[in-house]
Design goal:
EC 3.4.21.89; Umud Fragment, subunit A; 2 helices; 12 strands; 8-stranded antiparallel sheet; hydrolase; single chain; 4-stranded antiparallel sheet; alpha+beta; signal peptidase activity; transmembrane helix; protease
Length: 184
């Protein structure tokens, strides 16, 4: 009988451990971090297709997205899809594109920390060449790092704060790229 009791105790310990692990995972997933898979090359070379990142979903309860940070949000054209882009302008900022460069609040935006200096940014159907727009309250203007191959605010406009899921902070796949997402 003692052997059955030991087996029973062992099985109960395993079940308790699995339940605790599942509960911890659920709390982390629901309240703190959410995994996200990069689809496409719009953030190349900083993020590549099929990379997996963790998005901090609680941080935006304590601060607003800042210029240069990488965020995940509900796609404006299809809320069933999530996009990853870099915040270029925040509420109240004035922005325009001219001759392949981005101008923010009257000066040329220095993006050398995350873009090759040869990258040109061209206007789109929303953010037209030479036409200045002001980012409204509770909205953000975002762009992909691979400007020539990114569907972003230049095409479809601002991202409302309520559509933002979180801030990207850690690449966990592939293992060779594992690390903290650095913001300028």
């Amino acid at each position: 009988m003692s052997i059955l009791r030991k087996i029973y105790t062992f099985l109960i310990d395993i079940v308790e451990t699995l339940l605790l692990a599942a509960a911890v995972f659920l709390v982390i997933y629901v309240f703190l971090f959410r995994p996200f898979q990069v689809n496409g090359d719009s953030m190349y070379p900083n993020f590549t297709d099929k990379e997996y990142i963790l998005t901090n979903i609680i941080v935006l309860n304590f601060k607003t997205p800042q210029k240069g940070e990488v965020i995940v949000f509900k796609a404006p054209q299809d809320p069933e899809k999530d996009f990853i882009k870099r915040v270029i302008a925040t509420p109240g900022d004035k922005i325009y594109i001219k001759d392949g460069s981005v101008f923010l609040n009257g000066g040329e935006l220095n993006e050398n920390k995350y873009l090759n200096s040869q990258v040109k940014t061209y206007a789109g159907s929303f953010l037209k060449e030479g036409q200045e727009v002001t980012v409204p309250k509770e909205n953000y203007l975002v762009m992909g790092d691979n400007r020539a191959y990114s569907s972003d605010s230049r095409e479809w406009g601002f991202v409302p704060k309520k559509s933002i899921i979180g801030e990207s902070f850690f690449v966990y796949w592939p293992p060779g790229k594992m690390g903290i997402v650095r913001s300028p």
